[in-house]
Amino acid sequence: MRVLAHFVPGPKVSDFVAPESDWLDIRWCAADDDATFRRELTEAQVIWHVLRPLTGEELRSGPRLRLVQKFGVGINTIDVDTASDCGIAVANMPGANAASVAEGAVLLMLAVLRRLLPLDRSTRAGRGWPTDPDLGERCRDIGGCTVGLVGYGSIAQRVAAMVAAMGARVLHTSTRDDGRPGWRPLPDLLTEADVVSLHVPLTEATVGLIDRTGLQRMKPDAVLINTSRGGVVDEPALVEALSTGRLAGAGLDVFAVEPVGADNPLLVLDNVVLTPHVSWYTADTMRRYLTAAVDNCRRLRDGQPLTHVVNQPTGC
Fold this sequence. Notes:
It is built from 12 helices and 11 strands. With 316 residues, it is an alpha/beta fold. The chain has 2 domains: 2-92 and 282-302, 3-Layer(aba) Sandwich (Rossmann fold); 97-274, NAD(P)-binding Rossmann-like Domain (Rossmann fold). The strands form 2 sheets. A 6-stranded parallel sheet has the order 7-6-8-9-10-11, sandwiched between helices. A 5-stranded parallel sheet has the order 2-1-3-4-5, sandwiched between helices. The radius of gyration is 21 Å and the shape is globular. Residues 107-279 form the D-isomer specific 2-hydroxyacid dehydrogenase NAD-binding domain.
């Protein structure tokens, strides 16, 4: 079975899939290597997809394609409608990255609340003890905060457990009142929370969910954490809020345009911690991804039902 894996493997990834080489022919392709991708696409039966958008034109150019296997959950980077029209199944991996992304969200919370990066830079510059008299007033413990979770799936629930163990008061919101303690409508959550952490997929309903009005509802000393999708936030409005002091800080793993351009104004802000959409990216998550991907390829080979198919392929 020919697989086109849209990423470059490390040694551990190569070692993990090596035992399957008698039946799984994996062609690795860097996300920015369009020429290799187009060339390999003509023979590929399966695509292992990570983040680089997969267009309808590309899907139609793969005459042998039968499965697009998303490494992760969000499928907003795949033209699912075209895949369905061409008889290509699209599958994802719900829960496989939940532990890693949840830890990544808490990591960003801590880094922003404790001003980790400015203090690191100051220490490296040899400035000795901090001289900012406001430092102790601006740094916060998670245990002294109200943490508001927007979305309450598996990742958010893991975050809730972690920050609650640290002493935080936890609120959450979802599309409807789920009857759990701590549920709030979104406007109320934004008003009450010291830390707002986003955990929703990017859909028509969530594009710009945290807009200028939403940011204005937040406390001036609050911070925003986003490990979901960049499009959930009105990025220009966020830049304005951070630049003017309307919002104390942000920790962002995702952006409106990825990869982040060198001219993105977020890059020059001192009150922002940034990572390049890698909160999921650990050896542990990759092992879970590969296990699920190989399993679905085996199912496809053997004519067995695939797991976690998100569409209804009809055929070209």
